[in-house]
Design brief:
The structure holds 2 protein chains of 2 kinds.
Chain A lengths: L1 H14 L1 H32 L8 H25 L1 H8 L3 H6 L4 H28 L9 H26 L5 H17 L10 H5 L1 H9 L5 H28 L1
Chain B lengths: L3 E12 L2 E12 L3 E5 L6 H9 L6 E6 L2 E2 L4 H5 L2 E4 L11 H11 L7 H11 L15 H13 L5 E5 L7 H17 L1 E6 L2 H7 L2 E6 L2 E7 H7 L6 H14 L1
Parallel strand pairs in B: 3-8, 3-9, 6-7, 7-8
Antiparallel strand pairs in B: 1-2, 1-4, 4-5, 9-10
The chains are: A mainly alpha, B alpha/beta.
Chain lengths: 247, 246
């Protein structure tokens, strides 16, 4: 049942121009970053050979590419997640799901997985872009894998928060602005942290993504993302359930 | 004795401080068509939402074919088909895609989905528009889509909230005969404020006013209880206005 709902979300997403446009725009921006990075690498390549332990092509191109992809997702996910529940509520289509023999958790998980399938497409494209470097270099596959896992966890966190905020309102635009504000806030919250142990660092999404970005899969960071995802999915289930009791 | 398919006891629902439905109770037997009648704002839609499991009652119990809707919602909902006030249609999907989705959501086995969809389309006169986008269909067709999704899984109980709104006279006649036909095997609850509709399709009538049930019974009982009134319209006006005065 979860997959039926996920497939429905994907289908509706791709039956309008929205998904295609978002995917195309993101891809163009990402490709631009990628080419810039390759250019910069080629420019400094002669100097790199002089170094004793030079950074590889993966560190110089793939790491910044995934860092940029994370910021692009920060802006794109609210646009994709805004309609998940808010639009169904506004168009009163939620009744189809609520009157069907489907539990609220299945609805939320289905919608979450539908959005994740779309986001994985984007992450997959970023990974393919990195793998194209094999045409003229060898990659550090471990570092690439760390980045892919990190970006997937980050995207899932964005999606979970976006889904929850979408469940709070009947206006997709409000959901989009709310999610974007919340995500940006959580991204930069550690700016005012004065020391490395500050609790603000613990909350910051960026801080936890950074270690993945450097190729370190730390269980503490993975746990942060998993808890983050679980928390907002549970909150979304509760919120949708409340609709039934209060109308 | 015929089987009781819907049994509602002591149902109430409050929206904040406002009580939309107050201690309503009724029973529906298999094959019956029950008309829920009342002026605007009487609590018809709220009652139907509660029966469909979209809204939890503040007090009271609902049983669908003996299964408690609040305790075992998934099993009970599998026996229900519901057309809300606004048909829950995804404008981006085609008629076929949408009905397949509705069938899958109601857990129809994969190999029976095509048959179920075809049958629902045929019954609601949608066979010619299968490939069209729902967003491009006229209001009348969208209303029929709403009915089709409510009956695609052949439910024991069909709940229709104002099924003939927005239809032309020919379609209204078709939908009414469809409801009559469904009444043979399913149980149907429909809400309306069109009185002739009730007289032509319903076996039993429940009249609601200001959240309360003011009459429940069949046409014969109605005539017996209010012998001085000539027709349903007069009874309706008398019952609802009488309540307003008190």
């Amino acid at each position: 049942m979860i997959f039926t709902i996920a497939a429905k979300e994907l289908k509706i997403l791709f039956s309008g121009p929205m998904a295609w446009i978002i995917l195309a725009v993101l891809e163009i921006i990402l490709a631009w970053f990628f080419l810039n990075q390759v250019d910069a690498f080629l420019a400094i390549q002669p100097q790199l050979t002089a170094l004793a332990n030079p950074p590889g092509v993966t560190e110089l191109i793939v790491t910044p590419l995934f860092g940029n992809a994370a910021i692009i997702l920060l802006m794109a996910v609210p646009l994709l997640s805004m309609r998940l529940i808010a639009e169904e509520r506004r168009n009163q289509t939620l009744n189809l799901l609520l009157s069907a023999p489907v539990s609220v958790s299945e609805i939320i998980l289905g919608k979450f997985l539908g959005l994740m399938a779309f986001l994985c497409l984007f992450i997959g494209l970023a990974a393919l872009m990195s793998l194209s470097l094999y045409a003229g270099a060898t990659l550090d596959l471990g570092l690439l894998a760390g980045n892919i896992v990190g970006l997937a966890l980050l995207a899932a966190s964005f999606a979970a928060l976006g889904l929850f905020i979408s469940s709070l309102t009947a206006h997709p635009i409000i959901a989009a602005i709310g999610s974007f504000g919340a995500l940006l806030g959580l991204w930069i919250i550690n700016m005012s942290a004065h020391d490395a142990d500050s609790w603000l660092n613990t909350l910051s999404l960026m801080k936890h993504f950074e270690s993945f970005n450097r190729g370190i899969i730390a269980s503490a960071d993975a746990a942060y993302f998993l808890l983050f995802i679980a928390l907002f999915l549970v909150l979304a289930v509760r919120r949708l359930d409340n609709d039934r009791t209060h109308g | 004795m015929t089987k009781i398919t819907v049994s509602a006891k002591d149902l109430s629902h409050r929206y904040g401080a406002r009580c939309a439905v107050r201690n309503i109770g009724f029973e529906l037997r298999q094959g019956e068509v029950l008309g829920l009648l009342g002026p605007n704002g009487a609590g018809k839609t709220t009652t139907l939402q509660m029966l469909a499991g979209c809204l939890a009652p503040s007090t009271g119990t609902i049983e669908i074919c003996g299964i408690d809707l609040l305790e075992r919602p998934l099993e009970a909902k599998a026996l229900l088909g519901y057309l809300p006030e606004t048909p829950p249609l995804y404008r981006e999907l085609t008629v076929d895609e949408y009905l397949r989705l509705a069938a899958r959501l109601h857990r129809i086995p994969k190999n029976e989905i095509a048959d179920a969809v075809n049958k629902a389309k045929q019954r609601c006169g949608l066979s010619e528009v299968g490939k069209r986008l729902i967003g491009n269909l006229s209001k009348g067709y969208q209303q029929r889509m709403g009915i089709a999704q409510a009956i695609v899984h052949n439910p024991r109980v069909v709940i229709l909230d104002e099924p003939t709104v927005g239809l032309d006279p020919i379609q209204i006649r078709e939908i009414r005969s469809l409801i009559r036909e469904m009444g043979g095997e399913h149980s149907v609850i429909l809400s309306t404020h069109i009185l002739p509709e009730v007289e032509s399709v319903c076996d039993r009538i429940q009249i609601m006013n200001q959240g309360k049930l003011v009459f429940g019974g069949d046409m014969a009982e109605l005539k017996q209880t209010y012998p001085e009134q000539v027709n349903l319209e007069e009874v309706f006006i008398r019952l609802t206005q009488q309540e307003d005065k008190t």
